[in-house]
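Task: complex structure prediction.
Instruction: return structure tokens for all chains below.
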Amino acid sequence: MTEGGTHQRPPSVDALARSLAGQFELPHAVLVDCARHAVDQQSGDYEEAARILAEQFYSSLIGEVINATGVLLHTNLGRAPYPAQPSSRATSVEFDLHDGVRGSRHTGIALLLRILTGAEDALVVNNNASAVLLVLSALAEGRGVAVSRGESVEIGGGFRVPDVMKRSGARLVDVGTTNRTRRSDYQQACDVAEHDIAMVLKVHPSNFSVEGFVEAASVQDLAGLEPILAVDLGSGLLDSEAPWLPSDMRPFPSWIADEPSVKQSVDAGADIVMFSGDKLLGGPQCGVIAGRSDLIERCARHPLMRALRPGHHALVPLQHVLMSYLNRTATDDILFWKMASTSPDDLVSRAERVVTQAGRGEVRESLAVVGAGAAPAATLPSRAVVVQGDRTGELRRALPFPVIGRVADGYTWIDMRSVDPSDDDNIAQALTALED
Ligand SMILES: *Cc1c(COP(=O)(O)O)cnc(C)c1O
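Output:
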């Protein structure tokens, strides 16, 4: 390495790494890596370059944050929050405690899902995208699957119905039109022998809506057709009756009332339903397949199942969530339903307390949304603490936890509906720490 006239002599990598040690809680090997990259730049302020690299590294790590965006299920912030059950113990995930032999990781959860949804059996995989892939592969490989042109959608994150279909080895058979599809359209497709239709797939268009001259065949309309009737529900509302919600939320707001649900889809004649664990269900990332036991059995025996099987880190919280529905403690234990069912009055008093404690900001009416592509047009009345200007960068660096807000109309909005009350003090602290 040459020493040019304008160039500072590069420090030793080790000395540079040690100079960063106080600022970031990063392992020495990581600081060495940052220092080496800084020195490789061969010019300028090596210490500053190394510090920036270390900071970038630090903020790329996954950490806990306070979701004050007002988007209850924020995909960038991990969708549904759920309380961690930290434990270093082993679990009986595949162990039968009664007989002391190998058990199935699905038995207990399938029992809970049967009671909650009325389905004969159930199976859990890593996410709903896996659920759709597995169902198509196990039940329709090499055969036709009829999908309405209005439901041949992209869900987001590159998940497109025609592409997943191709991957699974099933053949997409388009039926109906973009805006109107009837039972007779599906029936006609089924009557064409070359189509060899194994399955009719309904896909919930969770993240968009079509208005106007629109018609779609419901699950009930399609029940009784010859092929397997499968429904990708996406958002995973367990039951339209939502018996876990307090009576003062009745009649339900449209984002619940209009949402197709698992139980009612099974009742209406769906053979298989699929949904996400971390949307309206309010659990960990996973995908649930529920339905006829002979079909669940075929999915469970398919070779892909081994690649898609969830770990106990997902199954244990899922089990807790399902228990909370059955115990009628959902609005306390399932954080999504806790956020969604909080009354505006509660939000007002929490926001006022934050403003008083912080000594800055004011309380404004705001609108929260469900998020995660569920009920895209629906809003929930909320309250926010607002401060003038764009303070989101400073709030992202707040201690003890980054606070993620949003900017609108020249103000920074901290929406209280997506915040757990246990974080109100942390928000007040973050606001207090803002520079004047
Ligand atoms: C969200 C969604 C998916 C994907 O679910 P993941 O759990 O994110 O994999 C698939 N289909 C529909 C209809 C959805 O809404």
